[in-house]
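Section 5.1 Outputs to date
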Amino acid sequence: MSSKKVDRLTRLPEEIRSHILSLMPTKFAVQTSILSKRWRYSWMFVTSLDFEFIPAIHGINSFLESVDLVMELCKTSQLQSFRLDFPGWRLPNSRVSNWIDKAVRLNVRELDIEVIEQVELPLILFTCKTLTKLRLKTAFRECPCRVNLPCLKTLAIFVYKNPFLNAFKLIAGCPVLESLYLKVSFYDGVEDYIFRIPTLKRLKLTFLCSPVVNKVVLDVPNLEYLFVGGTPCSIFVMKNVSSLVEASISLYDFTYDHLQKLTFEHLWAELLKGVSGVKSLSIKRMSSTLHLPTFLNMKHLELKSFWPSRRILQFLENSPELKHLYIDKGMRRL
């Protein structure tokens, strides 16, 4: 080989260079345009766009202008992912809506939006045929009546008020949904949460500060993993969870009076009875006086936070097939 230095990276085909640039933060990919004439336009064909606002580094106006420019010049025909992380700051509504609109027109597959301001999502998003993964951590107005996301398999949505105005409309329009994460806070409605999703395999539910006791009905015959977190405020009705293998529970008990404590005891009892057939169970906290069901199939048990010895013994007595026990007491691990 010749001793003369060869720039093999620059000589790579355009599509390979664009793929390499897609693996780095977008701002660094754009900066490669100054390397040489051959690098000038490579970033325009990246398949991943990642915008994260960091106040210590970015000015708000320069950040907005940069995103505008990148979205205007991006030429890829298939955008693998678009991520916008802008927590704690307010963004112009029209700006965010335009960026999402452009991402959808670039046939985006994965969309991740985290913005504190209420966003007017473009209608084109709700009928995107290429979207496979959607994460929305932002307040947005009611969904349109027609939602059709034929390829969406993963949905994570954070609801600050009534989930029936947006979350459940989105869920109904996802015929192949496999993974769902729903976080609801400050909801005071009375409707039951009914999950009738035959394709669902993973479900994570978190409820925060919901004063009303309602029902969560699970009719999910292919569900393999269930997580329940937040505050116990719902009665779980396991209508069909015949494939459930693993469950994880992390609930906080806010008991202000004797009546409320009895209510929480009942909610805990129904939930544990519903998951008593799993093979693997993880619990972070639990009411101290609750009667345990029998876990006939459980082989793996993980107990987090502080657990009194007598409660651990009760789990052992009620789990005849148990093979692995993991206890995490914070600073001490047994």
